[in-house]
């Protein structure tokens, strides 16, 4: 295992993750997995007035994935759906004051699961077609567990 430097913010969110859990009957649900490391993330949202009223996550992932999910839920909570949709993995990593280079890919899961949950909701309300809700995925981003 390589020695890597985690920011204080990453450590803090890893130790005290926000918005952990499940929302029963969510308005939107997103589940994404990383095919290489097998890490998995689920995001549940409740929508009110076109904003994310509540958000929870569950992850079977590495420490960075936990910190990323915690951060992405904090960033998205209360935001209009259109704005939450624009949150990128880089935004999440920046907000966490960076991730070690080998762990940058872990931020994919957070943003992807959030986007999947929003698209799931948009399909339900007929704003987009089911085929438009396919997960984006970041091409060529292998996930390493080192
Ligand atoms: Fe797979 Fe971090 S998300 S190692």
Give a summary of the structure in a few sentences:
With 146 residues, the protein is an alpha+beta fold. It has 5 helices and 3 strands.
CATH classification class: Alpha Beta
Tell me which oligomeric state these chains represent: single chain
CATH architectural name: Alpha-Beta Complex
Shape verdict: globular
Mean pLDDT level: 89
The main pleated sheet reads as: 3 strands, antiparallel
Helix and strand element order: HEEEHHHH
The ligands bound in this entry are: FE2/S2 (inorganic) cluster
**Could you name the CATH topology?**
Sufe protein. Chain: A
Question: What would your notes on this structure say?
Answer:
By secondary structure, this protein is α+β, with helices and mostly antiparallel strands. The chain has one domain (8-125): Sufe protein. Chain: A (Alpha-Beta Complex). It has 5 helices and 3 strands. It has helices at residues 8-15, 63-76, 81-85, 89-95, 107-124, and strands at 28-33, 40-48, 51-60. It has a 3-stranded antiparallel β-sheet with strand order 1-2-3. α4 crosses α5 (107-124). The radius of gyration is 14 Å and the shape is globular. Mean pLDDT is 89; it is low at 138-142.
């Amino acid at each position: 295992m390589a020695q890597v430097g985690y920011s204080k913010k990453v450590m803090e969110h890893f130790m005290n993750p926000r918005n952990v859990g499940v929302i029963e009957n969510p308005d939107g649900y997103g589940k994404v997995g990383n095919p290489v490391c097998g890490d998995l993330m689920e995001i549940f949202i409740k929508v009110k007035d076109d904003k994310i009223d509540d958000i929870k996550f569950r992850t079977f992932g590495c420490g960075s994935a936990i910190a990323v999910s915690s951060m992405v839920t904090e960033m998205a909570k209360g935001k209009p759906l259109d704005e939450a949709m624009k949150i990128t993995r880089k935004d999440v990593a920046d907000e966490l004051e960076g991730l070690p280079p080998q762990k940058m890919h872990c931020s994919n899961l957070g943003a992807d699961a959030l986007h999947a949950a929003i698209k799931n909701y948009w399909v339900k309300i007929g704003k987009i077609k089911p085929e438009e809700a396919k997960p984006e995925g970041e091409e060529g981003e292998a996930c390493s567990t080192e």
